[in-house]
């Protein structure tokens, strides 16, 4: 047996084995049943197949209630750190499911570097494009033509969704998922919408940044981030529809739907990610997949950057600053979408899949 | 940094111990305005004594209360207590605990404790026992946070060696802190430092040398130093000094602190043999929750204090998983080899048992009367032949939960000596539980005694110094 004194730094190959070892202790205790869905789900079996571990790992929202309540945490010889063990197994599963696999692995090992490289390259590319007189449109299109923007972003949109779909299919196979019914989706979306698994089981919150005291701050910060992102996404979608179907190209007025959605979303996203980044510096890094702490932080900051540059762009409309801000904003958005299947952003898809699978299994 | 307040400070209340009873006392006294210091012998990660291993609170209630269903009357509660203690209880104190438990539950919730519905596999307790969300350590965390918010000063690794008493009055404690002996003076003291089960030498003196083979289910920090110090100074004792509460647990558990996960629920569906390969008691006498306690003693009486619970594949899914995987073999011969049992004797035992089994309906969740015939000792329920491979075995050893010897208190939690009572010494929790629980155990009752008497001690002490 390997002697691994710091389970939070377990190598990926050991992640499932270590999670299994720890879950077998939990399954004989069960004191934590009230915190989240993971512990009731665990009691369905006595022995855990790899797919069971993957399912439980992705169901875990890292609320840490179980760690601070656990009588078997280090220095106890049972050496339990469930948030880290499941975090590592979860991280490892995303790397394994990623498509193309090689890129998943590369990102897993060198996330921050890949992210930085993509941003820089994209900014340079956009500057290069900008230096050619391709504009001639109104608003932003004066700087980058609509067609250039589209020819960059359509692939950047479509490819990640394809890659995520492949990953989810692999996930679904490994966890033994069945065909999805509407009732499963309703339960899963409701759980995701309320972040029920981060509320400590009774609405008192999680144990993320205040150790053994409960706090709802992270849940609210995550809600702001998630809904902010969805509003921004909706703004883009509405604008696209207005452009193509209603023949109403940008720029839009302040009271137009794209602007209302985009501004609200941008502010929420900005505040939410700033708070999430701050909380992350306060929380104990060893209670999560600490190996990828930097990558997770970089992803939060990227999202912050996306929202912040978007808001700045709104306020500098009509000035020459747009020339500088637009490439920054577009490059960050581009990077964000392109890296979605390999970054922390993937968690949203796998988490939702886990909630759907759990809704099926709970039957 | 190690100083306990400014030099020469006299605290209103010194609380010795850092578990449930200690914290209930500290919080109650601090809320009454007392300046309180808590001296916990464990480091912070192991704070909370045995409370960190508990999971529920047995509570009287006249109607649905918080997570508790139906009702649980004072008389029913007291009868449950009489049954397990075989009458070895102080009725006056016991009824005080039972009656007060009802007001404790809301008090606990007000001070940060969260309850949850009965855990899976424990539905039989949903009427009588309120389960802590996250278990006892979560309760301990909540109380430490509440105490901290009230300004209570807590010191960890603070090992109290001596309680200074001048005539009838407590004056100070001597505490080892960071390698130095420090004197902490106070106007009153609450002693809530548990029993002595963490001191193996003492256990061996009390029980006999066999106790060296016992496992201790809870904290190693309950060494009974303060209890012995008080008894040496003439405090009155209660409880049988030679006895401890021991249950049969997985023999591979750690020496200390194995807690809940080391329990084994397979005995009723198994045959249990000692290291000579012989059965020695009716495994199917009653449902396991009513029998696990006696099995500690039964195993303690076997050679080397060890036994093996053997099942076949028919029974593998009938009980909660254990933290340790069972020994597994395709044949009984092979199993005997793995367990290092005398092969012939073991095979003979299984053969005799199997021949004594008869056809009938097997009901794992109730007394099914499926008994052996012409087998000594008989198995009176759930007797099915051990004949369907693979075969599994779990090692059993006695696991000590707590000791019975303690300090005698009255209904105000005040400690007495041969000539009367101390003026300013109170006790709460395991250190005085022997007054009420003279024998046996009732699930969740230790926490009830600790909560009720912790609050009484805190209130009385605060009133004394007020």
Q: Would you give an account of this structure?
A:
The complex is a heterodimer of chains A (363) and B (466). Chain A has 363 residues and is an all-alpha fold. Chain A has helices at residues 12-27, 38-42, 50-59, 65-69, 82-97, 101-130, 146-174, 182-194, 217-244, 257-282, 293-315, 322-339, 346-361. Chain B has 466 residues and is of the alpha/beta class. Helices cover 27% and strands 22% of the residues of chain B. The model of chain B has no long low-confidence stretch (mean pLDDT 95).
The pair of chains with the biggest contact is:
A-B, 32 and 33 residues
Specify the number of helices of chain A.
13
H/E element order of chain A: HHHHHHHHHHHHH
Q: If you average the pLDDT of chain B, what whole number results?
A: 95
Query: Structural class of the helix and strand makeup of chain A?
Result: mainly alpha
CATH topology title of the largest domain in chain B: FAD/NAD(P)-binding domain
Euclidean distance between termini CA atoms of chain A = 37 Å
State which percent range the strand residues of chain B make up.
15-25%
Number of strands of chain B: 19
Low-confidence stretches of chain B: none
What's the shape of chain A?
elongated
The radius of gyration computed from the alpha-carbon positions of chain B, rounded to a whole number of angstroms, is 24 Å
The CATH architecture name of the largest domain in chain A reads Up-down Bundle
CATH architecture of the largest domain in chain B: 3-Layer(bba) Sandwich
Q: What is the first-to-last residue Cα distance of chain B?
A: 29 Å
Report the sheet with the most strands of chain B, covering strand number, pairing sense and barrel closure. Answer: 8 strands, mixed
- The CATH superfamily of the largest domain in chain B is FAD/NAD(P)-binding domain
**Beta strand count of chain A:** 0
Q: What top-tier CATH class of the largest domain in chain A fits best?
A: Mainly Alpha
């Amino acid at each position: 047996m390997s002697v691994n004194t710091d389970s939070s730094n377990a190598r990926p190959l050991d992640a499932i084995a270590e999670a299994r070892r720890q879950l077998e202790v939990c399954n004989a205790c069960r004191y934590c049943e009230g915190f989240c869905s993971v512990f009731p789900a665990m009691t369905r079996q006595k022995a855990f197949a790899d797919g069971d571990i993957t399912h439980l790992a992705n169901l875990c929202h890292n609320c840490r209630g179980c760690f601070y309540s656990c009588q078997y945490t280090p220095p106890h010889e049972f050496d339990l750190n469930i948030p880290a063990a499941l975090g590592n197994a979860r991280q490892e599963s995303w790397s394994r499911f990623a498509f193309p696999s090689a890129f998943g692995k590369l990102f897993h090992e060198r996330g921050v570097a890949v992210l930085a490289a993509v941003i820089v390259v994209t900014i340079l590319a956009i500057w290069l494009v900008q230096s050619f007189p391709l504009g001639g449109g109104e608003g932003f299109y004066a700087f980058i033509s609509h067609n250039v923007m589209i020819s960059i972003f359509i692939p950047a949109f479509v490819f990640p969704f394809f890659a995520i779909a492949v990953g989810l299919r692999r996930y679904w196979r490994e966890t033994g998922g069945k065909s999805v019914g509407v009732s499963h989706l309703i339960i899963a979306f409701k759980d995701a919408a309320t972040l029920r698994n981060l509320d400590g089981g009774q609405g008192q919150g999680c144990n993320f940044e205040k150790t053994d005291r409960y706090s709802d701050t992270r849940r609210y910060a995550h809600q702001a981030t998630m809904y902010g992102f969805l509003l921004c996404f909706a703004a883009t979608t509405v604008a696209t529809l207005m452009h193509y179907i209603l023949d109403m190209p940008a720029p839009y007025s302040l009271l137009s739907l794209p602007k209302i959605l985009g501004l609200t979303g941008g502010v929420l996203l900005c505040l939410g990610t700033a708070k999430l980044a701050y909380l992350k510096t306060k929380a104990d890094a060893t209670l999560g997949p600490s190996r990828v702490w930097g990558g997770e932080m970089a992803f939060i900051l990227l999202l912050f950057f996306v929202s912040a540059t978007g808001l700045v762009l709104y306020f500098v409309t009509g000035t020459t600053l747009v020339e500088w801000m637009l490439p920054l904003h577009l490059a960050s958005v581009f990077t964000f979408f392109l890296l979605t299947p390999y970054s922390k952003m993937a968690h949203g898809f796998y988490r939702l899949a886990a909630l759907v699978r759990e809704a099926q299994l709970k039957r | 940094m190690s100083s306990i307040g400014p030099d020469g400070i006299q605290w209103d209340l010194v609380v010795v111990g850092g578990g449930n009873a200690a914290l209930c006392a500290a919080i109650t006294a601090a809320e009454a305005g007392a300046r309180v210091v808590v001296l916990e012998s464990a480091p912070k990660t192991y704070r909370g004594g045995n409370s960190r291993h508990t999971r529920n609170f047995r509570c009287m209630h006249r109607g649905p209360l918080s997570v508790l269903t139906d009702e649980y009357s004072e008389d029913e509660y007291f009868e449950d207590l009489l049954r397990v203690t075989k009458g070895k209880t102080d009725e006056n104190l016991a009824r005080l605990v039972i009656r007060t438990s009802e007001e404790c539950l809301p008090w606990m919730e007000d001070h940060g404790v969260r309850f949850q519905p009965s855990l899976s596999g424990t539905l039989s307790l949903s009427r009588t026992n309120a389960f802590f969300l996250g278990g006892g350590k979560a309760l301990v965390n909540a109380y430490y946070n509440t105490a901290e918010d009230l300004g209570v000063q807590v010191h960890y690794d603070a090992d109290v060696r001596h309680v200074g008493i001048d005539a009838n009055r407590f004056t100070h404690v001597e505490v080892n802190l960071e390698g130095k002996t420090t004197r902490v003076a106070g106007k009153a003291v609450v002693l809530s430092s548990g029993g002595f089960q963490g001191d193996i030498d003492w256990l061996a003196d009390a029980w006999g040398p066999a106790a060296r083979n016992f496992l201790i289910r809870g904290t190693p920090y309950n060494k009974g130093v303060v209890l012995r110090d008080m008894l040496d100074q003439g405090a009155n004792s209660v409880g049988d000094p030679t006895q401890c509460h021991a249950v049969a647990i997985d023999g591979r558990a750690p020496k200390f602190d194995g807690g809940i996960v080391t329990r084994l629920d397979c005995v009723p569906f198994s045959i249990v043999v000692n290291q000579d390969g012989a059965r020695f008691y009716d495994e199917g006498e009653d449902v396991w929750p009513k029998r696990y306690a006696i099995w500690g003693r039964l195993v303690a009486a076997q050679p080397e204090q060890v036994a093996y619970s053997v099942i076949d594949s028919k029974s593998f899914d009938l009980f909660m998983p254990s933290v340790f995987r069972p020994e597994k073999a395709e044949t009984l011969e092979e199993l005997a080899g793995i367990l290092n049992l005398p092969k012939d004797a073991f095979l003979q035992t299984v053969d005799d048992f199997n021949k004594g089994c008869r056809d009938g309906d097997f009901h794992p969740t109730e007394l099914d009367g499926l008994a052996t015939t012409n087998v000594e000792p008989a198995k009176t329920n759930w007797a099915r032949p051990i004949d369907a491979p693979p075969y599994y075995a779990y090692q059993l050893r006695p696991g000590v939960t707590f000791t019975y010897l303690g300090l005698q208190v009255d209904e105000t939690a005040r400690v007495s000596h041969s000539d009367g009572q101390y003026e300013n010494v109170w006790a709460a929790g395991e250190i005085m539980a022997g007054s009420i629980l003279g024998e046996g155990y009732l699930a969740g009752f230790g926490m009830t005694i600790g909560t009720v008497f912790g609050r009484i001690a805190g209130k009385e002490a605060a009133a004394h110094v007020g």
